[in-house]
Design brief:
The complex is a heterodimer of chains A (346) and B (326). Chain A contains 13 helices and ten strands. Chain A is an alpha+beta fold and 346 residues long. In chain A, the strands form two sheets. Chain A has a seven-stranded antiparallel sheet with strand order 1-8-9-10-6-7-2. A three-stranded antiparallel sheet of chain A has the order 3-4-5. In chain A, β6 and β7 form a beta hairpin. Chain B has 326 residues and is an alpha/beta fold. The chains are: A alpha+beta (346), B alpha/beta (326). The structure holds protoporphyrin IX containing FE and FE2/S2 (inorganic) cluster. Chain A: It comes from Neorhizobium lilium.
Chain lengths: 346, 326
């Protein structure tokens, strides 16, 4: 597939927008009219053509602009990308996974040739042509994880598995929903999930961890998570809260359609072969309310989900200052008709 | 889902590395190469063994992968001990399997991984338990990580790969031959290790228990102790099994595991290790007319006593009929 990449921004003048095709491909995360935390894990198998899950690694029209935004964030704060020394094998595993997947599914944009350990990587949209030796760090301009994730959409965490737990020992995290790699680095699955309300008592994390410890190579899984963001901003980090937190107060009944975004994370997990580590990818998608309501079913359903969302979840996701305004705005797009089952638009 | 990705392989080499141990080299024969894997991984082989009556019986056994193929490649290797009292998988491999035979092999799974933040690694193997341990030594040596290897065997002849390992690791390797009254002195070995050392042991059940027991007495934390108990599922008296959800009724034969009987009835049940360790095959029980014989290392004693679930890969029923929520 040949993509045409947008020239757009995720900060300052915020020119980000979705094409009609990107709207239809949006991974809408609600399959019913209410939301609660569950162990919503499924096999990461290919979804419908031109959907976010058509390929294991999804590259879309926002690729070039997102990679530019990541570079800006990294230049200001290099600690968004960190890796502990024992994660080097996992870094190479990740590089192999991403390069082979991108080259296989987007051959018009990426090419990978392998001759034993001699690899040749071509990234046309970013104008990269790199020959290197797989396994030899000195042949790349950055470490393998940083190198490949500067060229792949989505945030990434590398989890080491030991003591029947997963440890966040490396990552590239520049577009997170208000959590910090620098803070979570070295924590285990239960520790970094500690701030999440309700889910611990429901046993969600205990069951999810047990499942992930047995994740098999060749059988990746995925889940969806969501929050809301004011303005199409990728870098909603605690480090920069002073820059974006204030935007929550700027929502008015007049600007909801343009300012308020549903932010969905398509999270996928793969067992990595050499390191036995797990990679957790957090591929983020933004859609403004004006775009969302072009799909009648999504408008009705999101209105109902947001109106009935349990308070602890709304508080945790930080929706307090604009939830009521947004629900009121969405109510104009909800005629009360029943919604069809499943995620897809009608 | 169940067993995950399967690769079609052909037996490329068979070598007797000791009187009772054969090394098998298995090559993928449908084109693409096999994925790399980490030391401590195992694979599950699907064997179609011939029965005395002239039919075939499907046996699925887990084997540790030898060496490491960090680069991936065309072949994996395993070593198989001939154990006549087992359900027949190893006897089939030793007596019937020939070069050129085709088999199905699962993608590697690692339930016995190296601890990557350890400062030093003490590897202990008994008998055929050398297979994952040798892979660990190889990976550590390649990465330049400090380790020592202790390998116990009954007599000189039975120690598979002993000469090869001694040549590779020299002073980092010690052999113990029980016929010569040589015993692994765990306490002495552990006494001189720096903080942050991890211990790995694979071998017969009694040896593992002894070594871990000594390590605990010496004050080692459980988080630094790692063992792989290669539990070969045992046969037993036949019993009936009913699968409540799919409405299937079948019989578990005396040389069959519960899991194999469920698979033979056409149900794709979950599993990973087929050795009672990983927890993947845990299945809820609807009713049991008889006594549950729990043989796994996964359920706690309390869980075993209350009998709500069973690990189908190694456990069975002594009695008439087991009804499962499957
Ligand atoms: C192993 C890979 C995973 C990583 C690295 C990861 C990481 C995170 C992080 C950093 C947070 C934010 C916590 C905070 O507020 O500081 C989070 C939230 C959460 N995680 Fe995970 N997670 C993983 C897997 C899972 C899985 C498998 C589940 C399955 C149920 C899950 C469920 C959740 C939920 C429900 C939240 C709250 C999200 C919200 O309401 O916005 N996570 N996760
Ligand atoms: S398959 Fe691992 S415990 Fe049964």
């Amino acid at each position: 597939m040949t993509l045409s990449f947008h020239a757009e921004t995720f900060r300052d003048d915020y020119t980000f927008a979705n094409s009609p095709a990107a709207i239809r491909a949006f991974p809408f995360p609600f399959d019913r009219d209410a939301y609660m935390y569950t162990v919503n894990i499924e096999q990461h198998v290919p979804g419908p053509v031109q959907s976010a899950t058509e390929f294991p690694i999804h590259i879309d029209e926002h690729y070039v602009a997102e990679m530019r935004d990541r570079a800006i964030t990294l230049a200001e704060d290099p600690l968004r990308c960190q890796s502990l020394p024992h994660m080097m094998t996992a870094e190479w595993d990740l590089l192999e996974l991403l390069m082979t997947s991108m080259a296989t599914h987007y051959p018009a944009h990426f090419t990978l040739s392998r001759d034993g350990d001699r690899w040749h990587w071509i990234n046309r949209p970013m104008d990269v042509d790199q020959t290197f030796t797989f396994g030899d760090v000195s042949t790349l301009p950055q470490g393998p994880m940083e190198y490949v994730t500067r060229q792949c959409q989505g945030d990434f965490c590398l989890l080491d598995q030991r003591e029947d737990n997963l440890w966040m020992d490396a990552g590239m995290v520049t577009s997170q929903a208000d959590w910090s790699l620098d803070f979570d680095l070295g924590m285990n699955f239960m520790e970094w999930h500690a701030p999440v309300p309700l889910a611990h008592d429901l046993g969600v994390f205990e069951r999810a961890l047990k499942f992930l410890l047995n994740l098999q190579h060749g059988c990746p899984v995925r889940r969806l998570n969501w929050t809301m963001t004011i303005n199409p901003r990728l870098d909603t980090s605690p480090e920069n809260y002073h820059r974006w937190g204030i935007d929550k107060a700027s929502v008015t009944p007049e600007n909801v359609g343009d300012k308020v975004h549903l932010r969905v994370e398509l999270q996928a997990l793969w067992r990595l072969p050499r390191s036995n580590a797990i990679v957790f990818s957090i591929r983020g998608y933004l859609i403004k309310m004006d775009e969302l309501v072009t799909q009648k079913k999504w408008a009705r359903r999101f209105h109902r989900v947001l109106a009935s969302l349990p308070q602890p979840i709304a508080d945790y996701k930080g929706l307090g200052r604009f939830r009521d305004t947004t629900v009121a705005w969405l109510s104009r797009h909800d005629d009360g008709l029943p919604t069809s089952p499943g995620f897809a638009p009608d | 889902m169940s067993g995950g990705v399967q690769f079609p392989v052909r037996v490329a080499e068979i070598e007797a590395v000791s009187p009772a141990v054969k090394r098998l080299r298995l090559e993928r024969h449908d084109g693409p190469s096999l994925p790399p894997y980490s030391a401590g991984s195992h694979t599950v082989l699907t064997l179609e063994a011939r029965t005395l009556e002239g039919g075939t019986r499907r046996i699925r056994n887990a084997y540790s992968l030898l060496g490491t193929t960090l680069g991936g490649g065309p072949a994996y290797e395993i070593a198989v001990l001939r154990s006549p009292q087992s359900r027949g998988g190893s006897v089939f491999i030793h007596d019937q399997l020939a070069i050129g035979a085709t088999l199905s092999m699962s993608a590697p799974v690692n339930l016995f991984p190296l601890h990557r933040t350890a400062r030093r690694h003490v590897l202990v193997a008994g008998g055929i338990g050398i297979t994952p341990i040798a892979a660990m030594a190889r990976e550590l040596a390649a990465a330049g990580q400090p380790f020592e290897l202790h390998y116990a065997m009954r007599d000189e002849a039975s120690g598979a790969f002993a000469a090869e390992l001694a040549a590779l690791y020299g002073p980092a390797m010690r052999l113990y031959v029980s016929q010569r009254q040589e015993r692994i002195a765990v306490r002495d070995i552990l006494a001189h290790q720096p903080v942050g050392t991890h211990l790995y042991v694979c071998g017969p059940e009694r040896m593992i228990d002894g070594i871990l027991g000594d390590a605990r007495i010496a004050g080692w934390p459980d988080s630094a102790l790692h063992a792989e108990r290669f539990l070969a599922p045992e046969g037993g008296e036949p019993f009936a099994v009913k699968l409540a959800r799919s409405g299937i009724a079948t019989l578990v034969g005396e040389h069959q595991t519960l899991l194999e009987a469920i698979e033979a009835a056409g149900v794709d049940a979950p599993y990973l290790c087929r050795g009672g360790a990983c927890g993947q095959c845990e299945t809820p029980i609807v009713s049991a007319d008889g006594t549950l014989l729990h043989a796994d290392h996964f359920l706690t004693d309390d869980q075993k006593a209350c009998g709500k679930t069973i690990m189908t890969c190694v456990s069975r029923l002594r009695g008439r009929e087991l009804v499962l929520d499957l």
